Amino acid sequence: MATVFAPTVFKNYIDGAWVEARGGKAIENRNPAHTDELVGMFPASTAEDVRDAIGSAQTAFQKWRLVPAPKRAEILFRAAQILVERKEDYARDMTREMGKILEEARGDVQEAIDMTYLMAGEGRRQFGHVAPSELPNKFAMAVRAPVGVAGMITPWNFPMAIPSWKVMPALVCGNTVVLKPAEDTPLSTYNLAQALEEAGLPPGVLNVVFGDGPQAGAPILDDPGVNLVSFTGSTEVGRMVSRACAPTFKKCHLEMGGKNIIIVMDDANLELAVDGAVWGGFGTTGQRCTAASRVAVHKKVYHDFVERFVEQAKKLKVGDGLDPATQMGPSINEQQLKTVMNYVEIGKSEGAKLETGGHRLETGSHARGWFHEPTVFIDCDPKMRICQEEIFGPIVAVIPFDSFQEAMEIANGVRYGLSASIYTHDVNSAFRAQRDLETGIVYVNAPTIGAETHLPFGGIKDTGNGHREAGLAALEFYSEWKTIYVDYSDRLQRAQIDNVE
Ligand code: UN1
């Protein structure tokens, strides 16, 4: 029997106060492992609520931008400490609303902790440049300035980590924030906002507006009061975000889909590669933009790999992520499960060989959740739709290859470019691969997932639009360069003219 929790009614966070959506409507947040469990009711915000949040962020910006960065950072440091104290509770909340297994939910909170501490450190390190002027008695430097009001739209698959990737660097750089989290996982963002509020973040510096994309996300993009937008989600929605940001010239960061690959060379440690493929393909139920949804295997070891991989996939225990025995949770919602089921049909109709899985799980303990078997297609052609399109579910397509060159062609023959991995003991193959793989992230002897917060995260081609988040790259996005010249010569000095002999 699933535990029935009393529904809790949550509010938006605007100008330092928890307020209802003006329209008074709410959206249910349900547990995808037990759809009879209501996690909470969250505001169904509309353009009016978003406008309130933007107005509050605009006002707060005028003070926040003047708070010294090391002082802003101290608030982040306290928030990180609060997250550490509440890690277990927040992880459990996350599993209940998102479905990922508790161990992974702890990892998600940990990623937020890591990012918050990292950016707290950056408060004392917002270095600029000092350069010699070409003219005498003149000083030249470039400093970082905040951009203004930052609008953020975040996904449900990393409900605390991804908001933290955006919020923390934005805040330490002196921006104020309007954040619209995914309607499937609002509680984790609520928890993050609570931690920041308790850490002493001034009113209006962070505003959270709950609701769905069209009603509560789109108004952020159109508003001239928003200076910058960061979006993580599908490539299709990303294209709309990009278009919506263009007329007002908003700085726009897009982190979108992936069709990531693990390449297994004939000299690889097969056991390690199998473990990596299982974790990369089925971790988070395949619902990571970094998920290894393709595994290309050298023909010399293909049979051996497939046998071991399928055996492992079959053994995975699917269920409620709060049960410590569970290894894979449900899909996030019915629509996502249907997408997975649809891709199983597509794979079959394309002639890929379904080696294990392929069915929804809907009896016994699975009866009230969006569960699906771990699914492996083998003997896939790289041009098949299951090898080209992002599925965001527990389906892995295994593709045979003959040579390193062919593996590179398969890897790069997709529209996305987020993460790729190669298993090999040959240093030459490893280095050639990291050079030739058309992705923002490359792993050697590790799966495609598991990026760390202090290095740039993001991709190329249809995955991204040229920006990166996390690491120092985040500071580039959340600040503007301001170049300052101080002429102390007491005379007119003309650059490019008076310095020429
Ligand atoms: C995502 O899949 O949207 O590298 C983010 C990883 C995680 C983040 C994934 N640290 O898999």
- Shape estimate: globular
Tell me the strand order in the biggest sheet: 14-17-18-13-12-20-21
Q: Count the DSSP helices.
A: 14
Largest sheet: 7 strands, mixed
Structural domain tally: 2
CATH superfamily of the largest domain: Aldehyde Dehydrogenase, Chain A, domain 1
The bound ligands are:
2-aminohexanedioic acid
Helix content: 25-40%
> Hey, roughly how much beta strand do the residues contain?
15-25%
What structural category do the secondary elements indicate? Answer: alpha/beta
CATH topology of the largest domain: Aldehyde Dehydrogenase, Chain A, domain 1
Rg: 24 Å
CATH architecture field of the largest domain: 3-Layer(aba) Sandwich
Distance between the termini: 87 Å
Mean of pLDDT: 97
Uncertain regions spanning at least 5 consecutive residues = none
The level-1 CATH class of the largest domain:
Alpha Beta
Query: Based on DSSP secondary structure assignment, what is the total number of beta strands?
Result: 23
Summarize the structure.
By secondary structure, this protein is of the alpha/beta class. 38% of the residues lie in helices and 22% in strands. The chain folds into two domains: 12-256 and 464-483, 3-Layer(aba) Sandwich (Aldehyde Dehydrogenase, Chain A, domain 1); 261-444, Aldehyde Dehydrogenase, Chain A, domain 2, CATH 3.40.309.10.
